[in-house]
Fold:
Amino acid sequence: MSHLPDPPSPAALARALDARYTALAADARASLSCGSVLELAAPGAGETVVDLGCGRGGDVLRAAAAVGEAGLAVGVDSNPAMIAAARAPAADRHRIRFLLGDLAAVPLPDGQADVVISSCAINHAPDKGAVYREIRRLLRPGGRFVVADVVSEQPLPEAVRADPAAWAACYGGAVPEADYLAAIAAAGLADLRVLRRSAPYERGGVRILSLTLAGARR
Structure:
């Protein structure tokens, strides 16, 4: 794996993420996604779906419709304003839960999920491997995941890696694709496939791209 400069301090990163996503929670026009993960995961009746970095909860509500009364849809997000926004339209719905929590320490028991999804959220985590180990813990044997996220063409320069605002803007935490895939494999997940790869584009003077990935726990 590449040697990467240190990320911002946890406190500085938390402040930057909180500032950006608290503002976005109130803006229904803002897109928080970099891929159509729910459709690709194709949850079925009776399954449990966990969305890591659920934002305003749109995919959780759609997942609840797909899994029906016998299933469960759970959204997890680290931003209180996002969780509040997600809970509002779901207040009187059954089999839907929204939890405030760290994506690397989700407040759910082992083997809870048939399906884990995440869209443009794991790049915010300084330790991507810890999030993927958590995905493995959450999945039942045979369970699957679909994740869309941002990676970089090259290791990012120190000035970008150390900038909390760049992390909050979904590019400062990007790591090279090979490092990202290695973190998933090291977490013990299997059958890894790249479903979609965007053309590279520029953000903040660096080149990044979006990947949509699928895999499973065996």
Remarks:
- The first strand starts at residue 48 and ends at 52.
- The helical segments are 10-25, 37-41, 58-67, 80-87, 128-138, 158-161, 164-168, 177-186.
- The mean pLDDT is 92.
